[in-house]
Sequence to fold (269 residues):
Amino acid sequence: DFYAAFDCYMRGRYEEYITLMGKYMKRYCAENGFFDYEWSQLNIFNVIDFINADDPKGDYKELLSGLLKIVKKLSPGSALEKQLETNLGYASRNVYREEDLLEILKVDSAWALASLQLARFYCNKDKGEGVWGKAIACYEEASGSKVVPIDYNDYFCLGYCYNAAQQTQQAIVAYEKCLAIEPNHPAANSNIGSCYEQLGEYRKALKSYEKSIEADQSDAFPYRCKFCLLSKMGENKTALAFAEANPKYFKTKHFQQAIDEMKRGKRRG
Fold:
């Protein structure tokens, strides 16, 4: 039934997909008694999430609603039911609600998709150290699952949260996971450079800034970071040559003053 349903899904025959999934889910629930997280992620969310939540035809909402009706009959009050309700709400509001995600985890604390969505919610909330800690805990909980859809941006956000919480070494580990998936992520390279700089590992920091510059020449941040670090290291001649070779990134009053001082030999690292 699943493969037949999946074939209908791939062909855009969504009503048939819902009908066949209903048969498949009824049999699965009868055999297992409930819908566990791994089954739900692999058989439902990994499939329908390929459709953009903002699709103009409303197919995503239609699929969520159809699956939700099935689950309400087969397993009322389950984590899967609450997850479908949460995703349907997000498709309408474009924002997750903390209370909905916590309710899913109350039913099943190992429901990794809710942990990941809650981590993203806390990260986007950006309200201080207490929230960073919550985001970190949820990201780490989610990353322990074999089937959670965690991507390089999630590892980047985890690194950002660790750094905001002043856990620099852990931030580096998270950024490295991001870069292992997306080696040319410019912000991750810049941020890991900042972490190395905080730890006094200046050569590693310079290398990270240079990787960021190679990946994206439109962002002034890594150029300015490299310039300031070279100055901090006392390598003013190199810093000055770098700034003069890349003048468009150093047009602010602050950097022009710094460059002028270097030229007059007044600035020290």
